[in-house]
Design brief:
Length: 487
């Protein structure tokens, strides 16, 4: 008995020692970089940015609402505002309003980089609630307001300002640089980014790096971490919508059957919600824990450095928050439920739509099979709406391309942490997976608890200082990408 207790005690001591050893050896892997001196901002940059916002380049689901005049005005604005870009670059226009500029480098043997953005914006839902009109060139309290300020004209105009400035200084890159700007990203990019990607593929272009929108600088957004962090998207989730239809006998509401189409469909939707796809720690999340875990408190270090042991606890903690739950599983969101035409008539047909955002490693077919198994009711007809999309490939973080992006961020934003992560939405870069394995998703403005709701929402805005630093960031990225071997 004593020997058994001693053995258990020794095993416990060894186990605790193992956990502590992993925690104390869980050291920082942050790239150490000296900040660079801030360069002056081009004269008139803020005015050009606000002018770009004033042009109503709105993407509507209904094609008949598309305003070609506004998009042509934006074309004219680009030509007038960035003469050097138009003079020195080969310029291709796709379907009237998407743009690809090629700035030729000195060495054709070096793979190019591609800087992406889009200039279409989402519609305005609650105009009276805006502090500044979303299309009236609003600057208030050193902050630029307007639809598209964050998504995604800040990126596009910052890129163009940086390139125009460098051209005016006589700078010529070593490697070719493409600027790819879509006009229908909010509609998944079928006539913009997809066409640009097809063109580049036909030309045999293989890029050393692609940078698009996606994640951003964050502050007070990550639990147990009080430092500003730049999150870099290395993959994005896929998506699929499933339609569920139940057809049954109807009748008068005074004589209902034990089950109606509404009852059966409601039960099916409830089953799907209560039985989500399994949570997992993806490669993107492993990278996130490796980069940021050492910067957190000891309790977090202990868990993340021993994640194979504490996996269930980690997944449980992440699953308790809407934002972090989306990082660990394919999410389930019922978005449409239609049934009935009159208060005293039992409907013969009920219809629901459930939208899923798919985790890397799973597919739309996996989602469909899971839902059919969970519902397990032949009365419910389940099918895919349209074409689902697979998650993107996961881009590497152990190469020069990722390091160059990290370096450029840290040179402009001192003391910031960097980390890979998963983009839970979609970007135009999904169309470029055949062009480069190194696709990253990052914009250099800051997301906080106070402003995150204005993304696609009310009072969308970017501080003037952050817009100016965005120009500096893209300038620095161009310089660094030409000084380092990215091939």
């Amino acid at each position: 008995m004593k020997k058994s207790l001693l053995a258990i005690l020794i095993a416990a001591i060894l186990f605790v020692g193992y956990l502590l050893y992993n925690a104390f050896s869980y050291s920082s892997t942050q790239l150490q970089v000296e900040p660079v001196e801030k360069t002056p901002i081009p004269d008139g940059a803020i005015e050009r940015f606000t002018e770009s916002i004033s042009i109503k380049t709105i993407s509507y689901q209904e094609e008949e609402h598309f305003d070609s005049i506004q998009f042509q005005l934006f074309n004219d604005f680009l030509h007038r505002s960035y003469p050097q870009v138009h003079e020195q670059c080969e310029h291709n226009i796709f379907n009237g309003y998407s743009h690809l500029f090629r700035w030729d480098g000195q060495d054709a043997n070096l793979q190019p980089i591609i800087l992406m953005a889009h200039h279409d914006v989402v519609p305005i839902a609650s105009l009276p609630l805006w502090t500044v009109h979303p299309f009236e060139e609003g600057v208030k309290n050193d902050t630029i307001y307007g639809r598209g300020a964050m998504d995604d004209k800040c990126s596009m105009i910052s890129i163009l300002e940086a390139v125009e400035q460098m051209m005016n200084e006589g700078y010529t890159p070593k490697r070719t640089i493409y600027l790819a700007f879509g006009h229908d990203e909010e509609l998944f990019g079928p006539r913009g980014a997809l066409e640009i990607a097809r063109y580049l593929e036909e030309k045999g272009v293989k890029a050393a790096m692609v940078l698009d929108e996606g994640l951003a600088r964050t502050e007070r957004m990550i639990p147990n971490l009080d430092k500003e962090t730049a999150l870099i998207g290395i993959a994005e989730k896929g998506g699929v919508s499933l339609e569920m239809i139940v057809n049954m006998a109807g009748g008068h509401s005074s004589m209902p059957a034990p089950e109606t189409s509404i009852d059966v469909l409601s039960a099916a939707v409830s089953k799907v919600k209560k039985n989500p796809l399994e949570a997992s720690i993806t490669p993107a999340l492993h990278g996130f824990l490796d980069k940021l875990g050492p910067e957190m408190d000891f309790k977090s270090k202990l868990a993340f450095s021993n994640r194979s042991i504490f996996k269930s606890m980690i997944l449980g903690t992440l699953g308790s928050s809407n934002s972090t739950n989306a990082l660990i599983r394919t999410t389930t969101s019922p978005t449409i439920f239609n049934a009935g035409i009159k208060e005293n008539v039992i409907p013969t047909s009920s219809r629901a739509v459930i939208n899923f955002r798919i985790l890397p490693g799973e597919t739309p077919d996996d989602v469909l099979a899971h839902v059919i198994k969970v519902v397990d009711d032949p009365r419910v007809d389940i099918k895919v709406i349209g074409a689902g999309r697979n998650p993107s490939p996961v881009s590497p973080i152990d190469n020069k391309a990722y390091e160059t992006l990290e370096r450029s961020i840290k040179e402009i934003f001192p003391n910031i942490l960097t980390s890979p992560n998963l983009v839970v939405g979609g970007t135009d870069s999904r169309h470029f997976s055949s062009i480069s394995p190194n696709i990253y998703r990052f914009v250099p403005f800051r997301i906080t608890p106070e402003n995150q709701a204005c993304f696609h929402g009310i009072d969308e805005r970017v501080p003037v200082e952050e817009f100016e630093d965005a120009i500096r960031f893209y300038r620095r990225l161009i310089i660094n990408s030409n000084e380092l071997d990215l091939n």
